[in-house]
Write a structure and sequence with these properties.
By secondary structure, this protein is an alpha/beta fold. It is built from twelve helices and twelve strands. The site of 4'-deoxy-4'-aminopyridoxal-5'-phosphate has 13 residues, from helix 4.
């Protein structure tokens, strides 16, 4: 993305599909709540795990909307974005192995968002990839999960809807995975925990309803759910995320995270929590407006890309990305004689020659090296123009 920014700074009309955040503004009601909180001097240290009002609200949402049993405010920690939520969670779950000891394993379906593996590795986990492909809808199967769980498995990280794949598990698929997890917890991996990154929960637009994996009672207590206001409410810069658990284990887990938070960031600002409460309770119309825009754009983007020869992609049903496989064009050359031998080379030449910025898929791991990621957090005219340039670039490869 640095090269795209440099070209833009030189006045080159770069079309950017790299954005990992909504192009909408934060809803007014959330902004006003944040400003009011500042004017009312909500600008001092906050309770480490977050203020009571916000924790109670999130517990209520997890109970009533997400259907997760056994969640009270004591099962909720509010932190500085979903990245920090993941960081604290992984630090609590894993330890750097002592000399001679084997590392505990983090199961990660791939392709996956670029920070999942590094955050796990920083905590001492050995990341075990579970490969998925366009053909499997980028979803792991129960059999694949059962085969991957070993006595060393500490956690499974699920991200549905997924960045970068924009696919999501159906409730039935989640039920089948939950069954495997519950069975493994009784035998192979008693300490197994599911970490569910549900950040894109509200940006879903297929026929598949969203369901939290923590809502299955057989695994509720071993599920740690992570969410935030950044993507759904166009509030990425406010830096609010949260972690919630369930039952006795969930409460102890949140107590541990609270200690970690207390010795790192102390707490998040009160006014950003106030803005988030307004988003969660007063901004359903904004949520719908943005969701419908993403739904329309998903169709425009999918239809435009699916029509390009040698571009294979899954229809997005959640989040705001498409992740086409462009590897049919690897081995070809640009008119200037530059060989396209990877997603990185594809993205670089597309940017240099046609001024379209996309994210090459290598860093998403697994099959990602065959793919590029395009975000449709941008307007429809831009999507159509970008697809036109992508088609022209591909047509020029020989
Ligand atoms: N999880 C996923 C799946 C994401 O896509 C992102 C942002 N790109 C994050 C976590 C990080 O979210 P935040 O900005 O709230 O830290």
């Amino acid at each position: 993305m640095n090269r795209a920014a440099a070209l833009k700074a030189q006045g080159v009309p770069v079309l950017s599909f790299g954005a990992g955040e909504p192009d909408f503004f934060t809803p007014d009601k959330a902004k006003i709540a944040g400003v009011k909180a500042i004017l009312h001097n909500n600008t001092k240290y906050q309770p480490t795990a977050g203020d009571t009002e916000t924790r109670e609200l999130i517990a209520r949402i997890m109970t009533e909307r997400n259907g997760v049993p056994g969640v009270t405010k004591d099962h909720v920690l509010v932190t500085a974005g979903v990245k920090m939520a993941l960081y604290l969670t992984m630090q609590a779950l894993f330890d750097v192995p002592a000399p001679g000891q084997e590392a505990q394993e983090l199961l990660l379906p791939t392709p996956a968002w670029v920070s999942f593996a590094p955050i796990g590795e920083l905590a001492g986990a050995k990341v075990v990839q579970m490969p998925t492909t366009t053909a499997s809808g980028f979803k792991i199967t129960p059999a694949q999960l059962a085969a991957a769980i070993t006595p060393l498995t500490r956690a499974l990280l699920l991200n549905s809807p997924s960045n970068p794949c924009s696919t999501m598990y159906t409730p039935d698929e989640l039920a089948a995975l939950a069954e495997v997890i519950a069975a493994a917890a009784k035998t192979t991996a008693p300490g197994l925990v599911v970490v569910a990154d549900e950040l894109y929960q509200h940006i879903v637009f297929g026929d598949v309803p969203f369901r939290s994996i923590g809502s299955f009672t057989s695994i509720a207590e071993r599920t740690i759910t992570i969410n935030g206001s950044g993507k759904s409410f166009a509030m990425t810069g406010w830096r609010i995320g949260w972690v919630s658990g369930s039952g006795a284990f969930g409460k102890r887990f949140i107590e541990g995270l609270t200690k970690l938070q207390g010795q790192t960031i102390t707490a998040v600002p009160g006014f950003t929590m106030a803005a988030t409460r307004a988003a969660l309770t007063e901004c359903d119309e904004d949520l719908d407006r943005m969701k419908h825009a993403f739904k329309r754009r998903a169709v425009v983007m999918y239809d435009a890309l699916a029509a390009i020869p040698g571009v294979k992609l899954a229809r997005p049903v959640g989040a705001f990305y498409v992740f086409p496989d462009v590897s049919a064009h690897f081995g070809k050359s640009t008119p200037g004689g530059v060989k396209i031998d990877s997603a990185a080379a594809f993205a670089e030449q597309l940017l240099g020659l046609h001024h379209v910025a996309v994210v090459p898929g290598e860093d998403f791991l697994g099959e990602g090296y065959k793919h590029i990621r395009l975000s449709f957090a941008c307007d429809e005219a831009l999507i159509l123009e970008g697809a036109k340039r992508l088609a022209a670039f591909i047509a020029s490869l020989k």
